[in-house]
Structures are given as C-alpha cells and as structure tokens.
Amino acid sequence: MLGIKRPTEEEVREAIRVLLLWIGENPEREGLLNTPARVARAYSEFFSGYNQSVEEILGTVFEDLSGYEEPVIIRDMPFFSHCEHHMLPIIGKAHVGYLPNGNLVGLSKIFRVVEVFARRMQTQEAMTAQIANALNTYLKPFGVAVFIEAEHLCMSMRGVGKQGAATITSAFHGIYKKDQRAQARFITAVVQGQRR
Q: Which of 1, 33, 84, 191 could disulfide-link to 121, CB 3.0 to 4.6 Å?
C-alpha cells in the first residue's frame, strides 16, 4: 500500500464497532463484546497474502530432473478468497500444470503460490492470471496451465441469489497456449480427476 498509512488494530476494531451499529446491532451486548477483535484477527489471516512473496516461495528449485520430461499437474487444490467488489468469499479449487524446462519446484510450493494470491482481495480472472504469470516468470518452464473453478458468494448470497453456480477461468502460457493438444491433455487430466 504505497503512500497509504495503515490503520492501527484499535482503529480497525473501532471500524467494526461502527459497522455493527450501522447494521442495527449493539456492540456492547455480551455476544458482541469481543467481535471487533475477533474480526480483526480473522481479516489478518484472510488477507495474509499481502505479506507473502511469491519470489521467496519459488526461489528454490531443483535442477536434477532425473530424465523426467512430462508435465507436472496438481489438481483439486482447495482455496478461498474474497471478492474485491463485495468482500464476500470465493470458494473453489485450483488446478495447475507446468512442463519443466530444467527446473522443478517442491509440490507444496505450487499450493503456496495459489494461497498467496487467494489470500488477497481478488477477482477470479485476475487471480488465475497472477498464478500463471508467477509460475511462468520464476520457473521459466516450457509451459504453464491454470484452471480455476469457484463459487462466488457475492452471487449466491446477494444479487441474483443463485447457489451452486461455478465460474471457470483458465490461463495458458508457452506450449499450453500454442499447442491445442497439450492444452486438451491438461484439461482432460483435470476433468477426469473430478469424476472419480
């Protein structure tokens, strides 16, 4: 947050008290006395991605591929995020694949990259692109594929009020963008895994 003074935790708690008053609640009643502090702690956890560096996460790679020349695909990585328009949850699964070009990264680091971007205010489209761009930039693979499916509670809880609708976004770099067969193999691996 360049040039913006970050509020203190007490200022955050006071803002939550004001919000409770605005919706018609009494922040002084027993059940709500500690709510401002709880919400402040929860938000600190929900949005911890602002304090994490993708560069640090992907900074260590393994160069010994031991002859491995096929894609690495990690599917069904659950995540939650928050919509930047209404601050309501986005709940979904991310599926990520990359074709190594001399560098492998620990599998848990792919999940951590997803988490860094998920734990920020987001649109699903931007998050999909951010994950793909980060992996492409730091791993320099032959190709990257990202496929995200999620339910947006801003659509389920308000507005049209429709539950269960999934939004699907994808981003492709390198071979996955140029070669339709590689792209189809990635999508098939993701879809077939969901049928099991």
A: 84
Length of the chain (residues): 196
Based on the residue annotation, tell me whether 69 is a catalytic residue of this protein. Answer: no
Q: Active-site residue among 14, 25, 52, 154?
A: 154
Query: What digits encode the pLDDT tens for the residues 81-93?
Result: 999 999 999 999 9
User: In three state form, how does the secondary structure of 41-90 look?
Assistant: HHHHHHCHHHHCCHHHHCCCCECCCCCCCCCEEEEEEEEEEEECCCCCEE
11 catalytic per annotation: no
DSSP state of 28: T
Active site residue 85: yes
The answer to whether residue 14 is catalytic is no
- Please identify which of the residues 124, 130, 173, 183 carries the catalytic annotation: 124
152 is annotated as an active-site residue: yes
pLDDT in tens, 8-33: 999 999 999 999 999 999 999 999 99
Burial class (CB in 10 A: 0-12, 13-18, 19+), 80: middle
How would you label 149-158 residue by residue, b for 16+ Cβ within 10 Å and e otherwise? bbbbbbbbee
Q: Are 151 and 166 in contact (CB under 8 A)?
A: yes
Q: Annotated catalytic residue: which of 85, 125, 192, 194?
A: 85
Catalytic residue among 84, 125, 192, 194: 84
9 catalytic, yes or no? Answer: no
Nearest 5°: phi and psi at 99? Answer: -105, 105
